[in-house]
Amino acid sequence: MLRYALRSLLGRKVRLLMSTLAVVLGVAFVTGTLVFSATLDRSFSTLFDATVGDVVVEPVAGGSPRRPEAAVPQSLVEDLADLPGAARADGRIRVIGVYVVGTDGKPVGGFGPPALAGTTGDAPAANGTTGLVLVAGREPRGLGEIVVDDVTAARAGYEIGDQVPLVSAFDDATLTATMVGLYGFPGGGSMNGASFVGVEPAVAQRFFLDGADAWTTAWVTAAPGTSQAELAAQVAAVLPDGLRAVTGDEAAADAASALLRAVSFLTTFLLVFAGIALVVGAFLIVNTFSILVAQRSRELALLRALGASRRQVTGSVLVEAGVMGLVGGTVGLGLGLLTAVALQALFAALGLDLSGQALVVTWTTPAAAYAVAVLVTMTAALLPALRTTRIPPVAALRDDVALPEGSLRRRGVLGVVGVAAGAGLITLGLRPDLPGHWWWLALGVLAVLLGTTAAAPLLARPVLRALGLAYERALGTVGRLAALNTLRQPRRTAGTASALMIGLTVAGTLAIVGASAKASVDATIAETFPGDHLVSSAFGAPFSTSLAGRVAGVEGVGEVVRERLDRITWAPVSASTEEGTEEGTEEGTEEGEDLPVAATDADDADVLRLTVLDGAVDLAPGLAVVQQALADERGIAAGDTLDVVTPEGPATWRVSAVVEDNPMIFADVLVGTGTYDAAGLLQQDWLLVVLVADGADPTAVGAALSEELADQPTVTVADQHAFAAAQREPIDRIVLIVYALLALALLIAVLGIVNTLALSVVERTREIGMLRAVGLSRAGLRRMVTLESVAIAVLGALLGFVLGTVFGVVLMRALREEGLEVVAVPVGQLLAFLVAAVVVGVLAAVLPARRAARQDVLTALASE
After folding, report:
1. Among 235, 265, 266, 272, which residue's Cα sits nearest to residue 250?
2. Mainly localized where (predicted)?
3. CA distance 651 to 67
4. Residue 852: in which H helix or E strand, if any?
5. Closest among 765, 715, 842 to 295, alpha carbons compared
6. d(CA 760, CA 780)
C-alpha cells in the first residue's frame, strides 16, 4: 500500500503541484518571519551590547542629562579609574537630534531610529566586545571635523573629505563640517537605521554641555578577574547622590527591552498573515484531495475488493498528504530565506535598516517549517481520507461510483449555530468594562467566520442561481451549463469560494478600519487644531529653540506659541482629603516609570483648545493639567497631586484640571514653562503654533514660513489641511503593508480556483467530449469554464464583502474608547474588490479553459 501511495502521488504530480505550492507559500512566510525576527533580535542585542561598558554610570532621573550640573564630572571619572576592580574609565557623551543632510537635501534616517551624536574614542564595550569604532580615515580634531557611521555616509552620498551639512535640535540649528573618518562595526553589526555623528570630546562638551568638563555617562571597564557585579558595587560606593551604577548587561537589557517587545509584536503581526495564508491553503488542499478521492472512488473500491483494509486505504491518502507536506516544507524553507531578505528590504525602506547583519537561522526555523507543512497538509487531507472508508468494495463492479455526501442541512444548522454563538460573543466583546473583552470579540469573529464557512454550500445556492439566470439571459445555453456545473458540487464550489472569502474578509475589514481611522483623525484635528499653522519635526522629534525667533520675525505672524516635551520619573499619585494627604489606590503605579511631560506658557494655554472635564486649567508654577487617558488609568482628579522625580530632584505638582485627550498635546501631563524650567527639563521645542496677525493672508504667511525654514529639512510647516494629510500618511502606509501581506493569501485563493477548475475539467473529460460532439464550440467551452470561475470568485467576494463590512464596523465600535469615533465604510473600495474578483475569475480560468478546449473529442468520449 505504501508503494501504491507513492506511485499514485507521482502519477498525479501535476494535479498536486498547485496544492503543494500553497503549502510552500504559507511555509515560506512562516519561516521568513522567524528568520527575520531572529535576525532583528540578534541585531538589536548586538547593537546594545556594543553601546555600554562593563559598568555604566548615569543620572538617576531623566536619562541622559542636558545640564552640566547633572552630568558626570571628569574628576569623578578619574576617581573611578583608580578603583581596584577597574582597568580604566571613560567619559562619554551621547545625545539625540543631530541629522546628516544628504546630497539630495533630505535628512538621512530619523523615522523611528534616532539621530545620534557624541564623542569619539576607543573605550571598550561590555565584556571586551568591540563597539562602534573608526573603520576608515582618522579621528576628528577640533571644530569643523566629524566622523559619520559608514551606512549613513553611504546613504547620504558623502566620502571622506566632503563637507557635510548637519541639522541640529540644539542652539546651533544648522552646521557644516568636514567628514574625516567613518565609524562602523568591524566585526559585523548594524545601526538598525540609526545614524551617528562623532566629534572630538572637547567639542562635544562645548556644544552639548555648555563647555563643562563633564560627560552624560561614564563607562568603567573591569580589570581581569573582576565581574561586572563586583565592579558595580565598588563604583556605587563612591558615587554622589543623583548618579547610579548599572552593570553593562543590565543596561543593555533595559535599553533593548522596549525594542525587543516591539519586535515580538512585529513577529506576531507577520505570523498572523502567515496563518491566514496557511488557512487559505488548507482550503485548497481539502478541495484537491476531495476531488482526487472522488475521481479515484472506483480505484479505491477495487483496492477494498482485493483485500485492502479501510485503514490501509485511508493511510494511503494520508501518506500522499504527508509526502506533499515534506516537499512543501523543504521548498518553503528555502523560499523562506528569500522571504526574510524581502522583509529586510521592506523594513529598511521604512527606516529599520539591518544591513551588515547576517541572517540568523536557529534550529526552531526548520522544525517549524516541517511541522507546519506536514500538520496543515495531513489535517486538510484527513476528512477526504476518512471518506474513503465509506466506499464499499462492491462499488468496484459499477461503472459510476460516487462518494456518499453528508447532509447539507446538517452543515447549515451547524453554520447557523456558529454564527449565532459568534454574534453573542461579539456582543460581549463590545463591552469595554468586561475583563478580556478583546478575547471575546476575537472568538466571536472566529465563530462567525467558521459558521459562515460551514453554511457556505447552502448560502451559495441562491447566489449561484441568481448568477445562473444572468448567465442564461446573457449567453443562453453556455451560461446555463456554467450555472448548473457550479450547482452540481455545492461543497466544492463553496470550499473554493471560502478560501477567497477569508482573504477578502480581512481586506474589507482593513479597508473600513483604515477609512474610519483617517476620518477620525480628520474629525479630531478639525476640533482641536490650534492657530493657523503648525511648525513641527517631520520625525516626531524636538528641534532647536532658535527657530521660534525666526518664525516670529516672518511678516504676517502675530503670535508664536511654543510646546516643549520631555520625560521624567513617575511616582505614586496622592489624593488630597480634608484630613490631609493620603496615598491613592490606583493600580499599576510604580516609582521609576516614565511620565511624558509637555509644557507651554501659562498665558497661551487657551490657544491649545483644551476641553475641560474636571477643574479649571491653570498652568501657574507647581500646577499641572492631566489628559483623560492617564486620569482614567490612574484615577486622577482635579486637586490630586503628582509626585515626580525630575533632573532637579523630587517635586510635587497639583492637578488643576483633567481635560479631554488632545492630539496637539504630545504628553500625558501639561505644565507651564515655569514649572518645566524649574524641573531642569529639555530646552528644545516640539511644536510651534503660529497665529496669523489680523488682516494677514494665512496662505501667504504659510509660504513665507516655508521659505524661512527652507534650510531646516527636518521641520515642516502645515496648515490644518496639510497637517491632517500628514497624520493620514502613516495609516495609508500601514494599510498598504497589510494589503501586500494579504496578497499572499489572495494568490493562494486564486490558485485554489485554478486547481479546482483544472481537476474539474479532468473529472468531466467524457462529458466535455459529449458537449463538443453535439456542437459546443471551443470558444463556447472556454466561455463556460470562465463563467464557472467567475461564479466562484463572485461568491467568495460577496461573502467576503458582507463579513468584512460587519467585522469592520464591529471593530470600529470596539475601538471607540481609543478615540476612533467615526465609522466610515468605503463603499467604492469594497465595490472595487467585487470588480477585482470578476477579473480574478477570468484570469484563473485561462489555463483550465484552454486545456478543456484543446481536448480531442474522440479521446474524451473514450475516457472513463
Report:
1. 235
2. membrane
3. 18
4. helix 846-853
5. 765
6. 17
For 522-542, the pLDDT digits (tens) are: 888 888 888 889 998 888 788
Beta strands, E only, 337-426:
none
619, 757, 608: which is closest to 677 by C-alpha? 619
- Whether residue 281 contacts residue 748, with contact meaning beta carbons closer than 8 Å, is answered with yes
The angle, 0 to 180 degrees and rounded to 10, between the axes of the packed helices 437-475 and 490-528 is 120
CA distances for 765 relative to 276, 782, 858, angstroms: 34, 14, 11
Residue 320 to residue 377: CA distance in whole angstroms: 9
Chain centre distance of CA 368:
22
For the range 485-491, what are the long-range contacts, defined as Cβ-Cβ under 8 Å and sequence gap of 24 or more?
Answer: 485/760, 485/764, 485/784, 485/788, 486/460, 486/788, 486/791, 486/792, 487/461, 489/760, 490/408, 490/457, 490/458, 490/460, 490/461, 490/464, 491/290, 491/405, 491/408, 491/457
Q: How far apart are CA 66 and CA 631, in angstroms?
A: 29
Contact 664, 609 (CB under 8 A): yes
* CA–CA separation, 216 and 93 (whole Å): 5
Longest dimension (CA), the chain: 102
The residue type of 131 is G
Task: Identify whether the C-beta of residue 599 lies closer than 8 Å to the C-beta of residue 671.
Answer: yes
Decide: helix, strand or coil at residue 836: helix
Q: What is the pLDDT of residues 700-716, one digit of tens each?
A: 999 999 999 988 888 88
What single-letter DSSP state applies at residue 746? H
Condensed to tens digits (0 to 9), the pLDDT of residues 808-820 reads: 888 888 877 766 7
Neighbours of 238 (CB within 10 A): 13
For residue 557, list its beta bridge partners.
692
Q: Kindly state the percentage of the chain with pLDDT values over 90.
A: 15
pTM of the model: 0.73
Nearest to 463 by CA among 47, 834, 5: 834
Beta-bridge partner residues of 184? 133
Separation of alpha carbons 276 and 278, rounded Å? 5
Residue 444's closest CA among 114, 811, 795, 117? 811
HEC string of 619-685?
A: CCCCEEEEEHHHHHHHCCCCCCEEEEEECCEEEEEEEEEEECCCCCCCCCEEEEHHHHHHCCCCCCE
Q: State how far the Cα of 144 lies from the Cα of 165, in Å rounded to an integer.
A: 11
Cβ atoms < 10 Å from Cβ of 710: 11
* One-letter amino acid of 209: L
What angle do helix axes 778-814 and 437-475 make, rounded to 10 degrees? 150
- Contact (Cβ atoms closer than 8 angstroms) between residue 32 and residue 333: no
Task: Give the dihedral of Cα atoms 479, 480, 485, 489; nearest 10 deg.
Answer: 130
**Cα R_g (the chain), whole angstroms:** 33
For the stretch 241-269, what's the b/e string if a residue is b when 16 or more beta carbons lie within 10 angstroms of its beta carbon? ebbebbbbebbbbebbeebbeebeebbee
Compute CA 265 distance to the chain's CA centroid, rounded to the nearest angstrom: 8
